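Write out the bound-state structure for 4'-deoxy-4'-aminopyridoxal-5'-phosphate.
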Amino acid sequence: KSRELIRRQKDIDSSAVAYPEDIPIAFESGKGATVRDADGNTFIDMFAGIGVLNVGHSNPYVLDAVHEQADKFVHTVDFPTEARLELIEKLDEIAPEGLQGNMRTVFGGPTGSDAVEAAIKLSKYNTGGTGLVAFRGGYHGATSGAMSVTSNKKFKEAYTPLLPDVVHAPYPYPFRDDKSPQASVDHALEEVQQILEDPYGGLANPAGIIVEPIQGEGGIVTPPEGFLQGLRDIATDNDVPLVFDEIQSGLGRTGQWWANEWEGVTPDIMTTAKALGGVGFPLSATMYHEDLDTWGSGDHAGTYRGHVVGMRAGTRAIEYIQEHDLLSHARELGEYLRARLEEAGESNPQLAEVRGKGLFVGAEFVDADGHPDGDVADAIQDYCFEHGVLVWKAGRHGNVLRLLPPLVLTRDLAETAMDVIVDAVEHATT
Ligand code: PMP
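---
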């Protein structure tokens, strides 16, 4: 049945759809951290729709509210609703300390890319600047502004000119930089400083700095301590907003509400999406300090400025995480996943580095000469799919195994999944 659905999809869907093709899987249903395919096979889900399903597939606590809301109404543009105000208040409650109580939220549309566009517009609007500092390895979305600040040429070379004034600074990546963590941070910060402060630095009229606190698509690249604080200081010194893109790393994924909390650094603007819609409803938001709330009514317009059902789902999902203390669970279970991978890497030089925080986990693979090896990650993914575990990949060379399971993943399921993943690593590298 899965093969048949895939065949039908190939006939009628866009050629841009992307999923691993070697192992035929078409989804039929999902529950918690498991999904069932059209042929009745059950899989442990270690990628959660790219970090969307933090409270699990079709979480019943969230769905109760979804059904109730859908029966009342679904769409209101910006007219006040309980659902809208509740979610804004909830976001304020869980915001990084420096934004709590003095934050505004704009729902700019359904996708993460929309939230990034809003962050870019807000930065430009408030500073009058045009230039943006972004980072190598960064991913921010598929719309023109978001593509401009994304660094991978593959995503954007066919669509230039994009925003003209974007300079990509190095992101600290000690493993690839072949530098100590401190040297890697110092190098990145010096470059950012130069871009903004040196007359030859490249940005004549800066509007802001946009960065992922942990790079997701880039390969779960987890910067050493000091990087985010360094950016905070540079942004303040240069009087430009610091934008944290928390679309993949936020809403509990790392065992804190926001990845930036690991360093206690507060941005001026923060984007969120993915898990914001609770159980997969498309919803994104840009949260920002009230000092930047200068737009006039209607200045940032759009039709889908907050899916009411998605908003209800989002609030309920946050409540669910709070009530079940899933942040602690994510921290503990993340330690377990990393420990299993590290153990596997001790005797296997091809598993070169394990990274991440909480349930945002990456393992980087190299060939016998230490070069990035995407084929190994491919083989691991295929093996896992064949053996009932859904895993994803990331990284510039597709050589990073990426695990971002629902936060509701149980220890039992995690152990079963890790047994398969460790077998997959052995199978793919020997
Ligand atoms: N920013 C980050 C950090 C992301 O990981 C993504 C999606 N992978 C986006 C922005 C874009 O989100 P969307 O695909 O919903 O437009």
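---
Residues 50, 111-113, 116, 139-142, 212, 216-217, 245, 247-248, 273 surround 4'-deoxy-4'-aminopyridoxal-5'-phosphate (CB under 6 Å).
The mean pLDDT is 96.
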